[in-house]
Amino acid sequence: MSLVARHLEANKIPTVIAGSAKDIVEHCGVPRFLFSDFPLGNSAGKPRDLVSQDRTLELAFQLLESSIAPRTTVQSPEIWSPSHEWKLDFQNVDRIPAEEIKRRRLEFDKIKEIGQQVRDETLNTDTN
What we know:
Shape: extended
Radius of gyration: 19 Å
Number of strands: 3
Number of domains: 2
Largest sheet: 3 strands, parallel
Low-confidence stretches: none
């Protein structure tokens, strides 16, 4: 997304990147970056939390309107959790109970199976 934003900006289309990987996004040099100290994949706000998502969108619009210099980074005041413990837990296999890992594997296998069915159906449709 960072490279796409730079391309759009070069063509006079202003952008704001919302993300959680501060080091990576800033290294790419995006013009405007809204950093949320959230787990990766949650840069638009907390899942199923419309208030958090609305605040994040509003911050992005404010950044778009107020940014006066290239490579501007603004940190969202939104917090994932009052405790920083989530940073130790997030996707840390050593801290996930074996039953939860098994459940996630089964869920992922189901998703892969659906994906394979869609691919197979698409191939069958394309060859007919």
